Every structure is written in C-alpha cells, then in structure tokens.
Amino acid sequence: MKIIDKAKVWLNPSYDAETREAVQQLIDSNPKELEDAFYKNLEFGTGGMRGIMGVGTNRLNKYTLGTATQGLANYLNEQFQGEEIKVAIAHDVRNNSRKFMQIVADVLSANNIHVYIFDGFRPTPELSFAVRHLGCNAGIVLTASHNPPAYNGYKVYWNDGAQVTPPHDEEIIRRVNQVKAEHIQFTAKPDLIHVLSNEIDQTFIEKCVQFGSRNDKKGYDDLKIVFTPIHGTAIASIPEALEEAGFKNVFLVEEQTKPSGEFPTVESPNPEEPAALKMAMELAELNQADIVIGTDPDADRLGVAVRNKKGEMVLLNGNQTNTVLTHFLLNELKEKGEINSKNFIGSTIVTSDIFIEMAEHFGVNCKTGLTGFKWIGKMIREAEENEKFVCGGEESFGFMVDDFVRDKDSVTSTLLACHIAAKAKNEGSSFYEELLKIYQKLTCYQEALVSLVRPGKSGADEIKTLMSDFRERTPETINGIKVVKLMDVQAGIVKNMLDDTAEKLTLPQSNVLIFYLEDGSKICVRPSGTEPKIKFYFSVKETLNSVEDYDETQAKLFQKLKGLEQSFK
C-alpha cells in the first residue's frame, strides 16, 4: 500500500499526461514492475545517478532528471551568486540520451544558467576537457557507461573538470533531496542554450595526441591496430586521433562503428568482457594485427588485447594494461632526469598493489583513494600547488594521462598504448613482453573479479545481508590461509587480526571490506555503486625469476585465485 500511495503521487497534474497514463497502467496491471519502479528513490549519489529508464521514483526519466538538475541549479546559484554561471553538457549514444540532455539544458537555462551543448554525442573525457577549456562552473554527461541498453545515467562535474567530491557532492545531494516535482522549472530560456563549435573537438584531439603519442614515431608505420568503439562515442575521436598521431595501419570493426543504444552485436558493451571484443579479435587474426583496442559506450575506458609469446591474441586485464602504461611514463621521466618525490601516481583500494611497488621503485608517491576516478581527480586538485600528477588508473579498465582531462580517458590512453606497442615492436619486443619484464623487475600479480548480479528490491536486500554477514563473522582463514588484516572502510578502521588492534583510516566512509592474507593475497568485497551487483576482487602475487618462467608462474597464480574464489562459494 505504501508503494501504491507513492505511485499515486505521480498521477497529480504536476506530471505530464504520458507519465500519468504509464503509472496508472502499472498500478492496474503490473504489481511487480510497480514495486521495482517505486520501492525507493533513484539515489542521486556522490557522482550522480544511474538507473533503468522508465516512469517511477526508482527510474531515470524526465522527473528524476529534472529533480537532480533543479537541485544542482539551486546549488550553483548559491555558490556563484552574482556571476554568469556556465555548465557544459555532453551525452553518449544511448537511447533517450539526446532527449534527456535537452531536458537538463532546459531546466538549467530556466534557472538563468548558460548551457553549452554539443551538436551530437561526444566522449565523456571530452566533456571533462570542455569544462575547464570553456571556464564552466560545472559539467554534466548523460551516460550509463557499459550498462545494458535499458539503463541511462547522469554524472556531474565541478569546475576543475573532475566529478564532484566533498563537500560539493554532499551539498548538491542535500539540495536535490529538497526538490519536489512542482519545484522543477522545465520552461527553457533558449537564448541561454549555446551549441558548441567543432573547435572544441579539434582542440581536444590535439591535446590527446600531444600527451598520448610522441615525436619519435619509429614503428608507427609497421604497427597494425584493430579498433572498435562497440557502437559507442569513441568513433567520433579515436580514429581521427590515431590518424593525426601518425598511425597508418588501423582496421575498424565496421559492424560496430555504427552508434547504437541497442549495442546490437554484443550482449554487453563492456571491454572488460572478452565476448565484447570477439569481432575485433577475429579481425585481428584476419589482418595479423599487433594490438586490439575496444572502448566502452562513453569512451572513458578501454580494453587492450595483444599477442603473447606464442603469438596468441590475449585480452589484458585493467591492472596489466595500466602497469605497462604507468611504467612507461615513469621510466620516461626518469630517462629525462625529471623524476622526483614530488611526482605522484593515482590508484584505488581495489586496484593492484603493483602500483605501490612501482612508485617505490621510481621514488615517487602512489596515492590510493576509493573506487572511482572522482577520487583521483580530488588528489590532483588538492596537490596541484605542490606536486605533479603523472597518471592514474583503476582495475576497471580506466586510465588517465597527465591532467588536461580529469577523468578516465580512453582516447589519450589508446594513443599511449599504441605508441608503446610500436616502440616495443621496433626494438624487437612487444607490449606483452614489456609487461613480463616489469613483473620480473617487481612482483608478478594476477587478479580476478567475480560479480554477483542481484536486481530489484530482493537483490538489494540480499547484498545488504551479505555485507553484514562478512562484518559480523569475519573468517579467520580463507582457503586455509590466515587473514592477517581487515580493512573496513565503512567503519573507518584497519583491524590487525593477529593482535586484535586497530588503526583509523583517513579514507571517506564507503561500504567496502578488504581481507589481507598471510601470503600477500588480497580480497576486496563491495556492492557496485552503479549496478545491482556485489563485486569480489581477488589479487594474488608471486616472484617471477625470469620472463621464460611466466607461464608456469601464472598457472600457480590462477590456481591460487581458483582456491580463493571457491572459498567464497
């Protein structure tokens, strides 16, 4: 009855006729869908919101977007009172993204805010770039990244081009929670809505080429590249950027170059999943390509596949790709004599600890934050007066070079990966062999991710119960290996399981648990912030005595991972 009462609010005249009719149909004939659509409010979290499109408080639609945007507008007008306020907006290729962007632009302009929109879809990193390039107070991108076609989303950026972080995120949430449907100003002021010229696109690509490629282009002519945008926005940037950088042999997966919110050739447009790159891998075999690049729909993440020592094309995980990119950038600084303790790289608590080792090896700092690039953006903002950011990455296939973009950036990262591959091939090595050399120099790591999908209200309850059980009944051993330390980010402590002492964390609170084992293994458990999932991140490590021993060492690591995964059943 509470859900029905909540739904009936959407039958009042504050909502348009189409919405009222759809809600009435749910009340009359679809109780299950009614429950999922209204059992909670779609949360405007610390970076925005993401959800299934449709009517209801737990869906992405005109009114949930309007509420979020009205709350943001109220906060911007408070923060920048008396100024000419500017907001840049971009959108991806998803169904309704253009329509949703127009709704957002209308609400902002109705609140006397100047809005700068693109004439079509653009990559998320270009939105981050545009915010600072145009001197905007904030930015918004309409995207649900790699989620299924039923989803869309809304991410908010601050004036530094990074996603909003404390205190702004919490204050925006507070304003959003105060907004009711009747408060939303939907009537646009067209004079305040400006369409951006192609000059932004060209300047963005020039910057990507500057930071992603190098003047030494030895091997560029010889490197064979296969690229797929998986029906997403990268088609607007990466092929052009590769051409401007000087790469000659680029093969596009033509079937996946057509932008589509249905993502018709894949089950999931997620470059983390080998199935999403199947067509690209087949094209690579046909053309004997050296490297495959696939990007997600909003072009902030990239998957990289390269040939192993047997000549087989293998998809690297995010940690492996980022290891090669980070090592290259740090080594380049070292060779130039420009590396020092004021340099730092950014990482996250679920990312491989090899980045901590690498930073120590080069004598730089590795700053570790919560999951999500917003926290790496926060690191840069807080350190920009005294320290120099080199690069940052997280395990979920995201990487950022320098800080002209302050979010994951597949465009620049693609150029850098191809430069490294070309340089290595020209010198008789390969991208893959460079990874193994790093493992031999430092430590050999292997990671695995297991995600349990639990949709709807029942799924949310199950995930909540799982996290409570892990906290209340912390295991003494996992797969027979002693748990020596437990990090509970929500409680803000790191507990030493051997002597029952605890230290306070400096990280913001987040629903994350990390188990550290006696043999150096690490398991992180966290509910996804953007999908109805609970995620288990496993990381194991071994010494690699020589590159030739890698296959044997990797087999040992996979066996370790299998044991850890089975222990969680």
Automatic annotation (TrEMBL):
Q: Give the signal sequence positions.
A: none
- Which positions fall inside the Alpha-D-phosphohexomutase alpha/beta/alpha domain? 43-180, 204-308, 329-438
- Single GO molecular-function term? phosphoglucomutase activity
* Domain of life according to the entry: Bacteria
Every copy of the Alpha-D-phosphohexomutase C-terminal domain together lies at: 496-549
Entry-linked InterPro entries: A-D-PHexomutase_a/b/a-I, A-D-PHexomutase_a/b/a-I/II/III, A-D-PHexomutase_a/b/a-II, A-D-PHexomutase_a/b/a-III, A-D-PHexomutase_C, A-D-PHexomutase_C_sf, A-D-PHexomutase_CS, Alpha-D-phosphohexomutase_SF
The EC number on file is: 5.4.2.2
The alphabetized UniProt keywords are:
Isomerase, Magnesium, Metal-binding, Phosphoprotein
* GO BP of this protein: carbohydrate metabolic process; purine ribonucleoside salvage
Cofactor(s) needed, names only, are: Mg(2+)
Which family, according to UniProt? Belongs to the phosphohexose mutase family.
Name recorded for this polypeptide: Phosphoglucomutase
User: Lineage of the native species?
Assistant: Bacteria, Pseudomonadati, Bacteroidota, Flavobacteriia, Flavobacteriales
